[in-house]
Design a protein that fits this description.
The structure is a single chain. This protein has helices spanning 3-21, 35-48, 64-77, 87-96, 102-131, 144-148, 170-179, 184-187, 200-204, 208-215, 224-236, and strands at 24-30, 53-57, 80-83, 135-138. The protein is α/β, with parallel strands linked by helices. The chain has a single domain (3-190), classed as HUPs (Rossmann fold, 3-Layer(aba) Sandwich). Helix 2 (35-48) links the parallel strand 1 and strand 2.
């Protein structure tokens, strides 16, 4: 049995087992038009059936190409693609801090979008739970490579109820996507956050290929500069996984 076949079968079993144990009905997934959300949607569709998977397109000054890819995926999987436009809400945030310079709003705006999107997914999961008479939860779409270097927004794309890609590198996600017959234009799309007009790799200053080699203990195959950048990203973003908590003396 190939790595791809075994992994797909294991993930499907994991999903079914979790849903059965917790008496869950369905899942809500943010569909970005990229490979991670595509693979997540395909795996949940196989595990739960298309009627129990709700895709959500959440435009916020988003590209038409990403929408078309999201639509292509959902049509292929025969799942709903619900549109939940966040553009006005996003601009309302900016309107309320109109006296603050755009330069100061840069990172805040970039992180605002994934936080708005995750809030929207939980909002919709609650609605679908009522409409469909069963509990719907929110699926995460982050992969192991992103998580290793902390390439996510706290309170945003890392907030979810279930993760199925968090132990798969980008290289492995692509292999799974190919095995699942995800359209090439989606599975091999150059990854970007859809927020900053830059690719993931441009923002990080390192490639996913090199990150995957580090994760797989093959850092000797990459340059010293790349190795140091990845180590720095990993170390500097560990705080995203930790919450400072005061503990009283016993």
């Amino acid at each position: 049995m190939s790595f791809e076949e075994k992994t797909v079968n294991d993930i499907i079993s994991f999903i079914k087992d979790y849903f059965n144990k917790n008496k869950l009905k369905g899942v809500v997934i943010g569909i970005s038009g990229g490979k991670d959300s595509a693979v997540v949607a395909a795996l949940f569709t196989k595990a739960l059936g298309s009627n129990n998977v709700e895709g959500v397109w959440m435009p916020c000054n988003s590209s038409k190409e990403d929408y078309l890819d999201a639509k292509l995926l959902c049509n292929k999987l025969n799942i709903n693609l619900n549109e939940f436009d966040l553009s006005n809400i996003y601009h309302e945030f900016n309107h309320n801090v109109k006296d603050i310079s755009l330069e100061c709003l840069g990172d805040a705006n970039i992180n605002l979008k994934p936080r708005l999107r995750m809030t929207s997914l939980y909002y919709l999961a609650s609605i679908f739970s009522k409409i469909k008479n069963g509990n719907y939860i929110v699926a995460g779409t982050s992969n192991k490579s992103e998580l290793y270097v902390g390439y996510f927004t706290k309170g945003g794309d890392n907030s979810c109820d279930i993760e199925i890609l968090s132990d798969l590198t980008v290289t492995e996600v692509i292999k799974i996507g190919e095995y699942l017959n995800i359209p090439d234009k989606i599975i091999h799309k150059v990854p970007n956050d859809g927020l900053s007009n830059k690719t993931d790799e441009e923002k990080m200053g390192v490639t996913y290929h090199d990150i995957d080699l580090v994760i797989n203990n093959q850092s000797s195959l990459i340059s010293k500069d790349s190795k140091n950048k990845i180590a720095k990203l990993h170390k500097n973003n560990l705080h995203k996984f930790r919450r400072a908590k005061y503990r009283k003396d016993k």
